[in-house]
């Protein structure tokens, strides 16, 4: 992990029982901020065995850390005393410890991705972000309204659809199956989004479809571009309850490959040399607008993390996140200027 110089040891080859050679660094599982243990707590507990040089997150999970000692003998003593046993200094948690190994340097393109806190800092054309778009009281009213309505369960999240139902199998909508007008509890939101750039140019309804997504703690969203033929240009997404980081990726010629999940981390986000990557922090009650190039030519993606690093500050996703995504269903083909990303023009 960046900062420690060490990483998780690889599993031994099949048929061999060899383990990493003893070192001054330990890979400690079941231990970290996501289970209520600060790095200071961990440092204090391990300091009983020798001088601790540093405590670092082992990955983005928040439940695995690297503990570095000044001397290998101290690491060996900690391993002998704590592996597989409750640690009194860490609320009795049973720790699973292995010797860590030096991390291989990553290519610069796959290094740590800075997280913007504003659309201007993000620098993706057509992306706008308004913090505190609704008040805390309005947020609670919106959450109560959807919680009083039935949810549909997907593999990792729950959804509600209004106006038109989004069909996940085809990544499109059936424009002939109108579910009715959008519910009255979002009427103030719809009125307010008319203040966004370009919204006042609409000659008909600005939006007529709403998808409400409930993401449990740590659950994200795979990289995708909302289907061009399904929706018009402007897509509004209101974040409620919990925060997240949204990453934008621009791939050459619209091509991309699905991320490979390794031990809960997105390997693709580390080893993706052929795309431009930018990230922005979405705090609760913020409204995001995706339009123009940012909507049509950039994949958007929410990493599957329980904690996020925003400018060196650890942000815990310790609650669910609920998003209200407003869109206008397209009734014809898309003729945007981003043909290499457009399903209408590639048919």
From TrEMBL:
The name on file for this protein is RRM domain-containing protein
Q: What is the lineage of its organism?
A: Eukaryota, Viridiplantae, Streptophyta, Embryophyta, Tracheophyta
Organism, per UniProt? Oryza glumipatula
Q: Which Gene3D superfamilies match?
A: 3.30.70.330, Alpha-ketoglutarate-dependent dioxygenase AlkB-like
GO MF terms held by the record: demethylase activity; oxidoreductase activity; RNA binding
InterPro entries hit by this protein: AlkB-like, AlkB-like_sf, ALKBH4, Nucleotide-bd_a/b_plait_sf, Oxoglu/Fe-dep_dioxygenase_dom, RBD_domain_sf, RRM_dom
Where the record annotates domain Fe2OG dioxygenase, the positions are: 206-330
Q: What's the superkingdom here?
A: Eukaryota
Q: Which PANTHER family match?
A: 2-OXOGLUTARATE AND FE-DEPENDENT OXYGENASE FAMILY PROTEIN, OXYGENASE-RELATED
């Amino acid at each position: 992990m960046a900062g420690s110089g060490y990483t998780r040891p690889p599993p031994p080859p099949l048929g061999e029982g060899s383990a990493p050679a003893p070192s001054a660094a330990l890979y400690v599982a079941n231990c970290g901020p996501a289970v209520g243990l600060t790095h200071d707590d961990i440092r204090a507990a391990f300091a009983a065995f020798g001088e601790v040089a540093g405590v670092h997150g082992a990955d983005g999970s928040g439940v695995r850390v690297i503990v570095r000692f000044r001397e290998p003998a101290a690491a060996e003593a900690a391993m002998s005393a704590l592996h597989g046993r409750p640690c009194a200094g860490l609320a009795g948690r049973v720790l699973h410890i292995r010797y860590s190994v030096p991390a291989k340097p990553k290519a610069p393109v796959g290094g740590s991705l800075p997280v913007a806190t504003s659309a201007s800092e993000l620098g993706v054309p057509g992306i706008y972000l308004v913090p505190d778009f609704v008040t805390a009281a309005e947020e609670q009213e919106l959450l109560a309204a959807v919680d009083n309505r039935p949810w549909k369960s997907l593999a990792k999240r729950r959804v509600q659809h209004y106006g038109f139902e989004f069909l996940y199998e085809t990544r499109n909508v059936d424009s002939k199956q109108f579910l009715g007008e959008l519910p009255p509890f979002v009427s103030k939101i719809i009125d307010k989004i008319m203040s966004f750039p370009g919204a006042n140019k609409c000659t008909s309804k600005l939006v007529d479809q709403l998808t409400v997504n409930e993401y449990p703690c740590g659950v994200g969203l795979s990289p995708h571009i909302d289907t061009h033929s399904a929706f018009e240009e402007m897509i509004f997404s209101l974040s409620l309850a919990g925060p997240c980081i949204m990453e934008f990726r621009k791939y050459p010629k619209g091509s991309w490959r699905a991320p490979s999940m390794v031990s809960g981390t997105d390997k693709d986000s580390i080893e993706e040399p052929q795309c431009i990557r930018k990230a922005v922090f979405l705090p609760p009650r913020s409204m995001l607008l995706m339009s123009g190039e940012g909507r049509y030519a950039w994949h958007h993606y929410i990493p599957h993390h329980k904690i996020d690093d925003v400018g060196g500050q650890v942000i815990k996703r310790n609650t669910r996140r609920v998003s209200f995504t407003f869109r206008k269903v397209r009734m014809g083909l898309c003729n945007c200027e981003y043909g290499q990303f457009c399903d209408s023009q590639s048919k």
